[in-house]
Design brief:
- The protein is α/β, with parallel strands linked by helices and 227 residues long.
- Helices cover 33% and strands 17% of the residues.
- The chain contains nine helices and seven strands, in the order αααβααβααββαββαβ.
- It has a five-stranded parallel sheet with strand order 1-7-6-2-3, with helices on both faces.
- Helix 5 packs parallel to helix 7.
- It is globular and about 50 Å long.
Length: 227
């Protein structure tokens, strides 16, 4: 009853289209769920996300849940997650994708889920890492440990979305580092992020993680930019 009164004065709206959510809808309305562009990467190990890293960095697996188009539903959803404090979006997307990923054999081998980290200053500005809720949902549903302390960002930089292509790749190689002990050796890490664009940030994270002896890496993101 109390929740109904709250919803009367502060109705919940869809993260994709801002329409009022029905009682049985959660964060994203049924219509947006129907129209949201799924990649179906999980059905093809040799998908375009995996191929994006060919010849650049050795990875075991890569995929994204959605395609990201400018002014599309996914851009609106990610924007609200990243800049408007709607962390519940990450949880919903994590639960959504986990249902697909748990059917893939490689996920039986992964030991630790690691988010692309924010610099401490950026974390203070935003108040949260936009991929944390996504990672925690994957952790719970896939029964894989979640760890935010191994991979660290040592250099503060401007928001990636406000940079051009050159700006996104310039000087990014050495902005991540790793804190690890012998117990982290020979582990298979699942690196997660919000959107794959050029892939340069993920490559830099992978290079840092590969400093750990015997490390193997897979990548999962919420979305992948598609021209």
């Amino acid at each position: 009853m109390f929740e109904s009164i709250i919803n009367l004065f502060f109705p919940k709206v869809c993260a994709g289209c801002n329409s009022f959510l029905l009682t049985n809808e959660n964060v994203i309305c049924t219509l947006c769920r129907h129209h949201i562009p799924l990649t179906n990467h999980h059905l093809n190990p040799e998908n375009e996300a995996f191929k994006k890293f060919y010849g650049k960095i050795p990875i075991e697996y890569a995929s994204a849940l959605f395609y990201f188009h400018k002014k599309g539903i996914v851009q609106e959803v990610i924007h609200k997650l990243k800049y408007k404090g709607h962390e519940e979006i990450g949880r919903v997307l994590g639960n959504w994708y986990a249902a697909d990923l748990k059917e893939i054999p490689v996920f039986q081998e992964i030991d630790v889920i690691i988010p692309v980290p924010l610099h401490k200053k950026k974390y203070r500005e935003r108040g949260y890492n936009q991929v944390s809720a996504f990672g925690l949902a994957l952790s719970k549903e896939l029964n894989i440990v979640y760890n935010e302390s191994i991979l660290v960002r040592t250099v503060y930089s401007k928001t990636q979305s406000k940079k051009n292509l050159l700006g996104r790749t310039e000087g990014i190689e050495n902005i991540f580092n790793v804190n690890f002990t012998e117990k982290d050796h020979d582990k298979h890490f699942l690196l997660i992020d919000d959107v794959i664009t050029t892939g340069s940030t993920l490559e830099a994270c992978c290079r840092a993680l590969l400093k750990i002896p015997g490390a193997k890496i897979s990548i999962v993101c919420m979305a992948m930019a598609q021209s």
